[in-house]
Amino acid sequence: MTPIETLAPAFSAVIQAQAALSLEVADYRGVDDATLLELTRLSANQQRLANSLSAVLAGEVARRSAPSLGKNGLAQRTGHRTPEELFRATTGSTARDAVTAVKIGQIASDTADAAAGVPVVDPATGELVASILPWLHCVGRAVTAGTLPIAAAESIRNGLGRPSENVPQQRLAEAAALLCDEAALLDADRLFRRARELRDELDEAGIVDREAARHEQRSLRFRRLPNGMARLVWELDPETSACVGELYDRATSPRRGGPRFVSGDSEAQEQRILADTRTTEQLASDVFVQLLRQGADADSSQLLGSGAPVVRVLVAATALAERAGHGRLEAQADAVSIETIERAVCAGAATLIRLDGDGQPLDVGREQRLFTRAQRIALAVRDGGCMVNGCERPPSWCECHHIEHWVRDGGKTNIADGILLCKHHHLLLHNAHWEIVRRGSHYWLIPPPDVDPRQVPIEMRSKSAALRDFRAEQGRVAEECAG
Q1: Which residue, among 44, 45, 159, 143, has the nearest Cα to 102 in the 3D structure?
Q2: 64 phi and psi angles, rounded to 5 deg
Q3: How far is CA 155 from CA 202, 233, 288, in A?
Q4: Are 357 and 366 contacting, i.e. CB atoms less than 8 angstroms apart?
Q5: How many of the other CB atoms lie within 10 Å of CB of 161?
Q6: At 459, is the pLDDT very low, low, confident or very high (cuts 50, 70, 90)?
Q7: What does the alpha-carbon distance between residue 3 and residue 7 come to, in Å, rounded to a whole number?
Q8: In which element (H, E) is residue 420 found?
Q9: How many CB atoms lie within 10 A of CB 471?
Q10: CA 447 – CA 457 distance, rounded (Å)
Q11: 3-state secondary structure of 96
């Protein structure tokens, strides 16, 4: 058998061997401390090898999804924006782990090509391209040898940075080799700090450049969590950190540092903070939310263009009238109490959207090219975000797509034949010849023949928790009537 023919059987053998390992807690309660630590080390070795294998596969997924291939790349052909997204969907990993696997996999792939003397060729143009990160070839070799965890490889990559006028590739390659040796004694976090130390030693003259690079790395990311909460990840450059940190300290320092010798208004303020029943973290969260609300409304014409934040609430009219049941916040998975809905409605305007028996919003717009604002609101209630399975883009990120194309099919701008798609999937439908069909109040995605020769329809499911509530209520009413 060829090496390629042995891959699948080898995978199966490994999986069968691992399945033989006990997962019973009781089996490990009886072992002594030395055995427990040895088993932990063996488990870490097994995990490192598995992660290295994932990185190698992720690197090949990335190679076959090169941006130069456009819609013919593996990720685009299978309906994903990026190789990271494809790898995440295939493996069930987190977004962060998928990004790391792809980055380290690309280094491993590049290293293998260099070691074999294989020229790196652009898969779309056939042109020779330069090696990606040649100073990290020792990292690639260590990963594929199973001696360097991919978390450690990512620490070396991030910590050393890229070559500069003061630090040529060869110096970085030497530093990377040293770090690969030291990785056996350091965890990934300490290895990153060690890599930063080496970079500083190599490039003392580059302080200004590194400061500028840190400024370029500033970012703010908003992520919705599966439990209904959300996480704001804010990477601050040192100057911004000084500003935000001062505000944070001002809001929380009495809690964190204890009472100090203050007087007058400052003393009264500190006493109020100390007496507050909220935790320090809750207090800081509430202070910053209020700062954002006030700031957004202070001069909206210059900053955000639309005044204070607008939060759309979804609730059945009967629930609101009877003060029973619950409601929803748009793009949020978890229900909220009727009291929260009443408070939100009291603070803003309310729009009535009527649904038919199937949960389909009744058309509220005119027959024109673009969907009206009222129609977009109705689609947001019905779809809850991009309707492509696995896509998590909320309604605010989506565009309205005509199932029967406006130009090609003479389609109408009505709600039943409209659907919410994020920009990526909207472009995918138009450019890669995917189609959507409607059967009653259900929608089906039809892949093009080059993706699925049989073109088996894929049911598209609404992300709207409010729509699920409506259908559940319809079922309850039907049961009561039948009884």
Answers
A1: 143
A2: -80, -5
A3: 17, 19, 32
A4: no
A5: 19
A6: very high
A7: 7
A8: strand 418-422
A9: 15
A10: 7
A11: helix
Q: For position 18, what pLDDT does the model report?
A: 86
User: Which two structure tokens, joined as six digits, stand for 470?
Assistant: 């409506």
Amino acid at 247: L
Q: What is the pLDDT of residues 122-135, one digit of tens each?
A: 665 666 556 678 89
Give the number of C-alpha atoms closer than 13 A to the C-alpha of residue 85, restricted to the C-beta side: 15
CA–CA dist 202, 169 (Å, integer): 12
Torsion angle defined by CA atoms of residues 86, 90, 94 and 97, in that order, rounded to the nearest 10 degrees: -70
What is the DSSP track for 388-406?
STT----GGGEEEEESS-T
C-alpha 465/C-alpha 463 separation (Å) is 6
At 347 the pLDDT is 46
Q: Which of 428, 425, 406 is nearest to 417 (CA)?
A: 406
Distance from C-alpha of 420 to C-alpha of 464, rounded to nearest angstrom: 12
Residue 323: C-alpha distances to residues 82, 320, 333, 376 (Å)? 46, 5, 21, 27
Q: How many CA atoms lie within 13 A of 272 on its CB side?
A: 9
265: which 2 tokens?
């208004």
pLDDT of residue 345: 59
Q: What is the 3-state secondary structure (H, E, C) of 265-295?
A: HHHHHHHHHHHCCCCHHHHHHHHHHHHHHHH
Would you state the pLDDT for residue 361?
62
- Predicted TM-score (pTM) of the model is 0.52
Per residue in 240-250, pLDDT (tens digit) is 777 787 788 77
Strand partners, 119: none
Is the CB of residue 100 less than 8 Å from the CB of residue 150? Answer: yes
Residue at token pair 């399945």? 19
| The two structure tokens encoding residue 323 | 């003060």
Rounded to 5 degrees, φ, ψ at 468 are: -65, -40
- The conformational region for residue 287 under phi > 0 = left, psi -120 to 50 = alpha, else beta, is alpha
Query: On the CB side of 318, how many CA atoms lie within 13 Å of its CA?
Result: 7
User: CB of 389 within 8 A of CB of 461?
Assistant: yes
* Domains in the chain, CATH or no CATH each: 3-216 (no CATH), 223-298 (no CATH), 313-347 (no CATH), 373-470 (1.10.30)
Cα R_g (the chain), whole angstroms? 28
Question: In terms of Cα–Cα distance, which of 276, 377, 275, 381 is closest to 328?
Answer: 381
CA pair distance 122, 145, nearest whole angstrom: 26
